[in-house]
Amino acid sequence: MKSSEPSSRSVAKHAQITAAARKLFLANGFAGSSMEAIADEAGVSKQTLYHHFATKVDLLGAVVSSELTDLSQRARLPASVEDPTRLRSVLLEFSNSLVKTVLSPDSLALIHLLVGEAYQIPSLRDSLVEGLPAGLFDQLTVLLRDAHDRGFVSAPRPELAARMLLGPVMSFMITGGFLRAGPIIQPSQADQEYIIDYFLTAMRFGSGQSPRKEHE
Predict the structure, then answer these.
(1) What CA–CA distance (Å, rounded) separates 20 from 26?
(2) pLDDT tens by residue, 53-92
């Protein structure tokens, strides 16, 4: 009985084509990269290319998925930490990793391409939202819920607490990278530490006390 799982050769070919598409999309833009040129760059026939990707939009979607998977792996958070000091360390590592990855020239070039194409290709919008901010919010929410349960922070609504932390960090990425025409400006280590420490203070670091209950 044949396995329904794709063969290692098929998976490798898929990745080979996706990498070629990514290279050409960044160099020539989405509209300026033909399927024929992508096939040539990948070293495959057009028949093989269309076997893996029916349309160029599908191929762009695969590039997006690959990038978001890579980002989530680099900026991954644990679901739990053993003490408040470790919580601060993990959040700071997360901020550093996120900023470093997203504000790299290569990542910014791809983000600019994807944001521009998302206006023309509605399906990309959901992919971007679900893969980038939503994925990060989910990871932070899980960690902050556990930290709340352990009494390290007071975050009875961890999903909103996650937004409170990610907002300042992402503002640096937007103003220092996404929207800049000039050189990229990354937040300093001191700035990131201030954001994390201020956030933890706002969450009543170590108290485990809900602000609402405090006034009841």
Answers:
(1) 10
(2) 999 988 888 887 787 777 767 777 899 999 999 999 999 9
